[in-house]
Design brief:
- By secondary structure, the protein is of the alpha/beta class.
- It folds into two domains: 143 residues, Aspartate Aminotransferase, domain 1, CATH 3.90.1150.180; 219 residues, Aspartate Aminotransferase, domain 2, CATH 3.40.640.10.
- The chain contains 15 helices and twelve strands.
- The strands form three sheets. Strands 2-8-7-6-5-3-4 form a seven-stranded mixed β-sheet, with helices on both faces. It has a three-stranded antiparallel β-sheet with strand order 9-10-12. It has a two-stranded parallel sheet with strand order 1-11.
- Strand 3, helix 6 and strand 4 form a beta-alpha-beta unit.
- Helix 2 packs antiparallel against helix 11.
- The longest helix is centred in the last third of the chain and has 21 residues.
- The chain is globular, with a radius of gyration of 22 Å.
């Protein structure tokens, strides 16, 4: 059976939430799948694959060098490790013990977020001491300069809708202050379409996911200055071995970057715009729900649909998302702001046919809640507590 959901009894998912790791991130494009399938049946020199990836990443980003990692979070750890050890092989093998080496790595407090994993933990896994800059909603240049005076191995900047953008240092200013003081800058922008700006600003290592917007297999890739990329490669003699990228990840990133360069982005934007228009029309008039377009938080060329629920909807936003996901097929809605009674629909990860099923499911769930009156029964505090307890549930679910 070619349909693995039928073969192994998995629940099929229609993904209107976006490129989420918990949903398999993205549909891997046919040309990438073909390249990965081909290399999986071969033996290769991994060093040659890395050299190929280096060339392709350099062309795509304008950087001095590039490297493929097992994920973007792994790249954070490896970049911090590289900043601590340089190309000292003895120091690399000793990590996470750092001895007398400078190991302080600065991160703005507003960037210490969780994207499914913790930014501070990804930094600390390298052996680094995480240094918080500023407060949750304010970081000034003097916070960064004070940390630099006390000594830093590196500084990490995060571009994500999860961060608190109020009061943060702009990336160009952050990079310029660090560069003026010879502090390496690591930029995590895993889900960002922009492959050149951070490199052009002078960041030492810039990190992207290979399996989100790019449409590759599970992977990450980094572009930046040759010295830190070289030190990241050498981490394979130490911590990097624990998070190595296989041949399928390396080839997948290469093929995905080549496909990205050839993609008709205008046509893709038109396809997504048609889906958004269809959703807005299909969901118009739902009691207690206001639907409208929403531009991407960090400036990616994406317009989503924002649904705002009022009490007249008969259910909370988190209930709408949970009930949509409970069906078969499951319909995933973006619910990370559901505590504010907001749900978002992402057109990037659905086909035109699936988009119809998404709006149909939302209408079905909302209509059923109004008829049954079983919505709005659990507060956000109760919902939050339940999610916290559910986090420890065994993922196997059947005790096996």
């Amino acid at each position: 059976m070619s349909d693995v959901t039928r073969r192994w009894g998995l629940t099929p998912v229609i993904n209107a939430a976006g490129t989420m790791t918990t949903l398999g991130a993205s549909r891997v494009s046919p040309e990438v799948r073909a390249a990965v399938d081909d290399v999986l049946g071969r033996f290769v020199k991994i060093s040659e694959l890395h050299a190929l990836a280096n060339r392709v990443i350099r062309v795509a980003t304008g950087a001095e060098a590039g490297y493929v990692t097992s994920s973007s979070s792994a790249a954070i750890t490896l970049a911090c490790a590289a900043a601590i050890t340089g190309d000292d092989l003895a120091a690399i093998e000793a990590l996470p013990a750092t001895g007398t080496r400078q190991r302080r790595v600065a991160v703005m407090m507003s960037h210490m977020v969780n994207y499914g994993g913790s930014i501070p933990q990804a930094v600390a896994a390298s052996g680094a001491e995480v240094v918080a800059l500023g407060t949750a909603a304010l970081c000034e240049t003097y916070h960064l300069e004070a940390a630099i005076l006390e000594g830093l191995a590196a500084a990490v900047y995060v571009v994500s809708h999860h961060t608190v953008r109020e009061g943060e240092l702009p990336m160009d200013l952050f990079v310029s202050v660090c560069r003026a003081n010879a502090v390496p800058v690591i930029v995590d922008m895993a889900s960002e379409y922009d492959l050149t700006t951070a490199v052009a600003l002078g960041a030492d290592a810039v990190i992207w996911s290979g399996h989100k917007f790019l449409g590759g297999p599970t992977s990450g890739f980094v572009a930046g200055r040759s010295a830190i990329i070289r030190a990241m490669v050498l981490q394979n003699r130490g911590l990097g071995r624990l998070m190595k990228a296989g041949k399928e990840a390396i080839v997948g990133v290469v093929a995905a970057l080549e496909a990205w360069g050839k993609r008709d982005h205008k046509a893709e934007s038109a396809r997504e715009a048609a889906i958004v228009a269809r959703w807005l029309a299909a969901l118009d008039g739902l009691p207690g729900i206001t639907a409208g377009p929403h531009r991407d938080w960090t400036g990616n060329p994406i317009t989503r649909v924002k649904l705002r629920l009022s009490p007249q909807a008969g259910l909370h936003a988190w209930e709408l998302a949970e009930r949509a996901m409970a069906g078969n097929p499951a319909v995933a809605l973006r619910d990370d702001l559901s505590m504010h009674q907001l749900v978002f629909l992402d057109p990037c990860t659905v086909t035109a046919a699936e988009a119809v099923q998404v709006s149909d499911r939302i209408r079905q769930v909302c209509d059923a809640a109004l008829v049954s009156g079983d919505g709005c029964k659990r507060s956000w505090s109760e919902e939050k507590a339940a999610r916290g307890h559910a986090a420890t549930d065994w993922i196997g679910g059947d005790g096996a």
